[in-house]
Specification:
By secondary structure, the chain is mainly alpha-helical. The chain has one domain (2-107, 126-166). The protein contains five helices and two strands, in the order αααββαα. It has helices at residues 2-41, 54-67, 69-90, 111-118, 124-166; strands spanning 102-103, 108-109. A hairpin with a 4-residue loop joins strand 1 (102-103) and strand 2 (108-109). The chain is elongated and about 70 Å long.
């Protein structure tokens, strides 16, 4: 029975890491697609690549807002929600995308290494519960984050659709 619990924890850690890595790749792609959509909707607008840089974004958003406030607000919100994720993705190599860390009040550590060290010791059940709670917390945080990204993405897509349909042919 303990061996099955060990395998479940190891699989859960691997799944969390895989899902976070996949999410970060998709967030990066979504940012690029939002900028590409903006270039399609506003082909006359110069230097839209600056939208990818948070420190240069405000001027672009301001120019776009003069043309379509709803689109500009949705784009700014979406890109703002993705900023931390794209920064995180850019700071890691492709071979070691995400290194999970478990933060406690005293320290932070690699949960897989710690699990490997503790799994056959008396502290294993306590650590297993700690890991389970941490994994659930991460899942909830990303679910909330993804809901906001989806809402902003749909608002941006609706705005672009409205503008494209209204454009003279």
């Amino acid at each position: 029975m303990e061996a099955a619990k060990h395998r479940r924890i190891e699989k859960a850690l691997a799944r969390v890491q895989l899902h976070v890595e996949t999410y970060l790749a998709r967030a990066y792609e979504l940012r690029d697609r939002a900028v590409s959509l903006t270039q399609t909707v506003f082909p006359e607008e110069p230097q839209l690549g600056a939208l990818k840089k948070p420190e240069k974004r405000a001027a672009c958003i301001e120019r776009l807002a003069r043309k379509d406030q709803r689109f500009a607000v949705a784009l700014d919100e979406l890109l703002g929600l993705l900023d931390d994720d794209t920064l995180l993705r850019n700071t890691h190599t492709h071979t070691n995308y995400v290194a999970l860390r478990l933060f406690t009040s005293e320290n932070n550590f690699d949960p897989q290494d710690t699990w490997d060290h503790l799994k056959d010791r008396p502290q294993a059940p306590v650590f297993r519960r700690l890991l389970r709670r941490a994994i659930q917390k991460v899942a909830v945080q990303y679910a909330v984050r993804i809901q906001g990204i989806c809402k902003a993405g749909w608002t941006l897509a609706d705005s672009a659709d409205r503008m494209i349909r209204a454009a003279p042919r």
